[in-house]
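Reopening this one. Same input as before:
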Amino acid sequence: MTESHRAVGPANSSAKAVNLVLIMILASLGPILSSPTVSAHDGPNSVIWPMGGDEDTGWVLLNATGADPVNGTQASTDWTLEFAPGAILGNVSMEIMVDGTEGVTIQQPLLLSPDTGQVLFDWRGNGWMGQNFGFDSANPHQGRLGPNADVGATVTMPSGSEITEFVLEALAPADPFTSLEPVELYIQDYEIHPADGRMYMAIGTLILILDAHSSPSTIDLFEIQNAEDEDYIVDLEMDTQNNRMLVTTDQGFIHSIDLLDTSWNPDLPVEPSGGEWTNTHIASNGDLFAFSNSGVFKLNTAGTGWTLEQASSTTNWPAGTPWKTFEHNGVIYVSILDGGVARWDVASMSALSPWSTANNLHSDFISDFAVAGNQLLIASYDAGIARRDLSNNFWLATWNDGNWLSSNEVAGITVVNNEVQILTSDTVHIYNTNSGTFSTSMTLDSLGLIKGARNIMHWPASGSRSPTNDTVLVTDGSAVLAMLEPGNSPMYTGDFVIGSGPSAGDMGDAMQFNGVIYVGSENYLDRYSIGQSRWLSAIDTGDIITQIVNDGTNVLVATQGSGIHVIDTTGNVIDTWDTSDGLQSNDVSGLDVEGDWVVVIHPGDGATAFNKSAPGSAVALNEANSELDSDNPTGIAIHNGVAYIGTAEDGLNRYIIANDTFLGSWVSTGINDVDFAPVAILGSNPQVLHMGLPGYGVARKDLSTGEILIPLTQEPNSPNAGSTEVLPSNQVYAIESTPTNSAIYIGTS
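Same output, byte for byte:
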C-alpha cells in the first residue's frame, strides 16, 4: 500500500468542461433574398459580396476550454460567422448534436450571441448532453426493495436522444452483520477510490466497499478468486493511471480490479523466482514495483514480466518479508519484518543504505510510516516512533512510553492537516505539528473500544461517497470503528459499524429491558439492541458479572469484587454500592430490586438490604445478627416488600425489608407418597387450609393470599417452644373444623 497516493482530489464536474466538445450544426441559415447559393470572394483590391444568397456552415466542432473550478470560471469558445455589411438575415435555423459514442459531449451548454445578447440555446441545469454519469436528484440513488422493487431513480435526457449504451452499476448493500460470538477482524489494508472517495477495505478474503453517506454503509463486497485455497489479501494498491486496483494475496497472486465496474482484470505476472508477492507500489514516476522476499522488481513496459532491480540479503537490501511501503520525495521506504527499513531511490533506480537496529533505527519491526512537516515518522510494534529530520538528514528523539506515548506498541499513524494521529495499543495520541506538542490523548475505552488497538485509517473528504469532513477510523478488531474528525471538537463523532458481536464467549447472566438485551460476559456488560439488530459498546464493570436486574429505570449489575453498579440506559455507570456504602462484601452472587429496595447476597457473608435512594441505609443480615439461617445464600427474589432468600439446607428464608423482621421459613415437608391426608378449613376471613401429614404435622396455606404459613408441629422438649410448635405428635390422623370454622380439632397418635 502506498499512502502517498491515497488522497486523490474529487472529480469536480466544472473541471471536466475543459475537455468537453460541442458539435453545433447550423444547418442552413436559410435562403437570403431567394437567390442562388453564393459566397464572398476576393477581388483584386477588396472582398466582393453577392447581392443575396444563403450560407450553409455544415457541421462545426467546437471545443470549450478554460474552465477553472477554483474561481467558478466556465469553459467557453467563440464561433464567428461573417456576412456582408448591412445584410438582412432571415429564415435562420440551427441544430445542435452530440455523440457520446464518438466522445463528443458537453455539460450544461449555453449558446448565445455576444452582439445581441440573444440566447440561442440553453441547457443549463439539465446536466450532460452526449453522456450522463448518474441519476437525477440524489446520486448515487439508494433505496431498499419494498418488498421486491425500488422506484424513484430517473435520468433526464434531451428529447429525441438515442441511447447507444446504458451501463448500470447495481450494488448490493449489506447491513452490518451480527455475531453471537466475539468478533475478531484485522483490516489488512485499505484504499480510497480516486473519483468518488469510496473506501475499499481488505479483511481476510473479502474486500468491502464502503460509502460514508449510505445506509447501510457497506454498499458492496466481493471475494478474491482463489479464496477456497485458504488464500487471503495482504495488500491493496491504487493504480489510478490504469484505472485499476491491485490486490496482492498471501499466496503471491496480484489480482487487478477495474475501478469502473469492479470487474476482475487478468492477473499480473507471477514472481519470477517462484516466491510470493507481498506488496506492490505505484511510484511517483508511474512505474509499478512489486516486492517479495527475493527483492525489488519492476514491471516491464509491455506489462508481461518483471525485472529484478535489487536482490535481497545484500548490503543494500535486507533479508525478510516486505510488510509496508511508503513513498516520499522520490524515495520508497519498505518495512522489512525483522530487517528494519529498506530504501529505494526512484530517480536513480538504485537502493539506498538500509536502516536497522544495527545502525540508527530504533526497531527492526516497523508497522507504519508518515510524514508530518519535515519529519519522517517511523512507527514500530515494540519501540515507539523514530523521527527523521528530512531537511537536515539527522535523527530526532524517539517517542516512546518513556516520554509521550502510553505504549511502545504502535499500530499505525495518520496525518490530517496539521495533526498527527498515533494509535498505540490502548490510546490515540494527537500531535500538533504547528505547536510541536501533543495536544490530547483519547483512550480506546473512551471511544467504546474495549480490546487492544488494531487499525487506524484516514478517510479523506474526496468525493460523493466519502465523509463530508476528513475522518480517521480506529478499530480494536470488533467491526465497530470509532470515527474521529481531526481539528473538530469533540473529535469523536460516533461509530462506523460494519458488524458487531459480544465482547466474550462466556455468558454469566442475561436480561431484556427497554428493547435491549443485557448480557454479562465475564467483566463486561454487553448490550444488544433489538431495534438496531446490533451489539452496542460493552461496559467494563471491573469484575466478573454474576447477575443483572432492572428497577424499571436503570440496570443494576452484581459483580464478584466491585459490588453493585447502577447503569443508565445510555450505558453510563451512575452509581456504585460496595463495602464503603455498607455492603457486607464486594463479592455479590445475586441481587433483586423492588422500587428503591435492594437486597444482595454474598458468598460466605450472608445478605445486605439497602435503599438505593438513601445513603447509609444498608442493613447487614447474617447468622450472627439476624434470623437468616445461612451465611451462604443460594438465591434472592423480592415480592411485595418481602425478600425471599434461598438457603442450601434451611429452605426459603423470608424477610420483610421495611420493618427489618423475618417471617417463618418455607421448608420442605420431606413427606412423599402420602396415602392419607386429612384436610380442614379454619376461619372465614381469611380462610386457612389445614392439611395433616403423618410424620410432619399440619401444613397450612392462606387461601386468600396463597401464602404458605408456618406448619403446626410437635412441641419440642424445651422451654422456648414456638407459637406453632403445639402438637403432642407429628403423626396426624384426623382434622375436623367446627361448623362455624371457628375452631379445629387435630387427632394425633
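So the earlier flakiness isn't reproducible anymore. For the record, The first helix runs from residue 13 to 16.
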